[in-house]
Design brief:
Shape: globular
Radius of gyration: 16 Å
Helix content: 25-40%
CATH superfamily: Nucleoside Triphosphate Pyrophosphohydrolase
Strand content: 25-35%
Low-confidence stretches: 1-10
CATH class: Alpha Beta
Distance between the termini: 25 Å
Number of domains: 1
Structural class: alpha+beta
Order of helices and strands: HEEEEHEEEHH
Length: 168
């Protein structure tokens, strides 16, 4: 169930969107090469948004797996503030920091870097309208956690979903 873009946007990617997708893919490959050489520690935040037991998954143009809205922390930004910003930037959903609950925190080796990841949960009573830019984010879909776990997922996201299911 792909969510349609908000009014005023085209239903699918334009040629300009495709050019941005190519740029994102090239930039990501360059970042991966840098990470393999430098082995940095990165800090990222993601948001699992839940509605009536279903989870919002997104697909980014530059990777093959599903994830959730999220990205790297900016200088001076807290993890929860980055999560709120990324949620707004990637799918157009507004949230307050106090609405997010930390679900998982871990550091793991990923693509040549030590990836410190915070994953937050946001419970929503109604499905918010979503805005997908067709550049960085190419798809947004609501799925049950069981169906999500059958998908190719960002590994920490898989662990966060499994933890949530085990807690009931």
């Amino acid at each position: 169930m792909i969510q349609p873009p908000s009014t005023g946007e085209s239903a699918g990617p334009t040629m300009l969107d495709r050019a941005f997708q190519l740029a994102y893919t090239c930039a990501y490959q360059l970042m991966r090469a840098y990470w393999r050489l430098r082995r940095p520690t990165t800090h990222g935040s993601l948001v699992t948004m839940w509605h009536r037991g279903e989870l919002l998954l997104v697909r980014n143009s530059y990777v093959s797996y599903y994830s959730v809205p999220g990205g790297y922390l900016r200088a001076g930004e807290t993890g929860v503030d980055a999560a709120v910003r990324e949620l707004r930037e990637e799918v157009g959903v507004e949230a307050r920091p106090d609405q997010l609950r930390l679900l998982l925190e871990e550091t793991h080796l990923w693509e040549g870097k030590n990836d410190h990841v915070l994953i937050f949960a946001l419970e929503v009573t109604e499905r918010p309208p979503l805005r997908v830019d067709h550049r960085e984010v190419t798809e947004a879909t609501w799925q049950s956690p069981e169906r999500a776990l059958r998908q190719n997922l960002f590994p920490p996201l898989r662990r966060a979903i499994e933890q949530r299911l085990s807690r009931g």
